[in-house]
């Protein structure tokens, strides 16, 4: 068996594995997102948020993304591992449909991690970031809109 045949065999195996890992990840991510829509953070956490300036709300979106990604472990890590391994193997095999599939997964699974939200979070004063990061309720998926409405929304004015 030639090195090229072994490489193609591994590439085919990796492609099939990547497809399964992507399904596993998207299923888990959807479940975590759905959980977040239903979860309300505690009244004591709302009270803690109300003590912060309204600019703190800019960190909630990013922290929600982080919480959903944490909830999606280990599926997210496995997807990344297989994707990067297959991408490396496919550099020598150069199978175009696999390259296209890898690019599609990158766009679908990883562009969601919004750098815009992270930049806004990182721009918050360090004391506000530290308070937000210390709150246990927002380390797991939570309903961002409910949290905002209960803390800074129209009903609170």
Please characterize this protein's 3D structure.
By secondary structure, the chain is an all-alpha fold. It has one domain (about 5-155). The chain contains eight helices and no strands. Helix 1 (about 5-40) packs antiparallel against helix 4 (about 75-95), helix 2 packs across helix 8 and helix 4 (about 75-95) runs antiparallel to helix 5. The N and C termini lie far apart (about 75 Å). The model has no long low-confidence stretch (mean pLDDT about 90).
What structural class do the secondary elements suggest? mainly alpha
- Rounded to the nearest angstrom, the radius of gyration is 20 Å
Helix and strand succession?
HHHHHHHH
Q: What's the number of domains? A: 1
Query: How would you state the average pLDDT, rounded?
Result: 92
The proportion of residues forming helix, as a percent range, comes to: over 70%
Low-confidence stretches: none
Q: Which percent band covers the strand fraction?
A: under 5%
Largest sheet: none
The tally of strands reads 0
Query: How many individual helices?
Result: 8
Shape descriptor: elongated
Distance between the termini: 73 Å
Summarize the structure.
The protein is built from 8 helices and no strands. It has 157 residues and is mostly helical.
Supply the key terms.
mainly alpha; 0% strand; 157 residues
Secondary structure layout:
Elements: H1 3-38, H2 43-50, H3 60-71, H4 75-93, H5 96-110, H6 115-123, H7 126-134, H8 144-152
Helix pairs in contact: 1-3, 1-4, 2-8, 3-6, 4-5
């Amino acid at each position: 068996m030639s090195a090229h045949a072994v490489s193609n065999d591994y590439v085919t195996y990796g492609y099939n594995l990547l497809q399964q890992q992507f399904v596993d990840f998207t299923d888990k991510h959807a479940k975590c997102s759905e959980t977040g829509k239903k979860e309300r953070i505690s009244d004591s956490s709302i009270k803690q948020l109300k003590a912060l300036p309204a600019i703190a709300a800019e960190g909630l979106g990013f922290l929600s993304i982080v919480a959903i990604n944490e909830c999606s472990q280990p599926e997210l890590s496995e997807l990344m591992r297989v994707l990067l391994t297959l991408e490396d193997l496919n550099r020598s095999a150069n199978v175009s449909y696999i390259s296209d599939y890898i690019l599609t997964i990158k766009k679908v699974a990883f562009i969601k991690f919004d750098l815009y939200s992270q930049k806004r979070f990182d721009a918050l004063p360090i004391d506000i970031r530290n308070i937000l990061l210390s709150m246990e309720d927002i380390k797991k998926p939570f309903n961002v809109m409910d949290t905002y409405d209960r803390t800074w929304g129209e009903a609170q004015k």
